[in-house]
Amino acid sequence: MPLYWFHCRACGGFDVAFAMADVPAAAPCPECASSSKRQFGVAALIRPGSAATRLIDATKRTASEPAVVTAPPPRRSLPVTRNPLHRKLPRP
User: Fold this and answer.
1) Residue 38 pairs with which residues in a beta bridge?
2) pLDDT tens figures, 33-48
3) Where are the transmembrane segments (predicted)?
């Protein structure tokens, strides 16, 4: 379920999960129980800590903190075979 952000005048902002069809215009504050208006914005459809969230965070982090390397990766040489039957195999 998506998370919606509500703002209480006394306590500040808080998130509440509602089904998209059932989201109200106001919700009670979890601290003081006063009516809090819904703030319009993007609904959070991804749960924090999920694999998708970790992937998105890692992608954002590489934009500002790229990995530093000292040298290119070593080249791997292909094994050489002396078997004549291997010449008949299809090449990649």
Assistant:
1) 6
2) 899 988 876 655 667 7
3) none
What is the Cα–Cα distance from 60 to 65, expressed in whole angstroms?
9
Q: Which residue carries 């954002």 as its tokens?
A: 60
Entry pTM: 0.44
**Entry field: residues in the chain:** 92
Q: How many CB atoms lie within 10 A of CB 49?
A: 8
Question: Which DSSP string do the residues of 48-76 spell out, in sequence order?
Answer: TTSHHHHHHHHHHHHHHSPPP-SSPPPPP
pLDDT tens figures, 68-91: 888 888 888 877 888 999 889 998
Q: Report the share of the chain in percent with pLDDT over 90.
A: 14
CB 45 within 8 A of CB 2: yes
Assigned token pair, 64:
């500002």
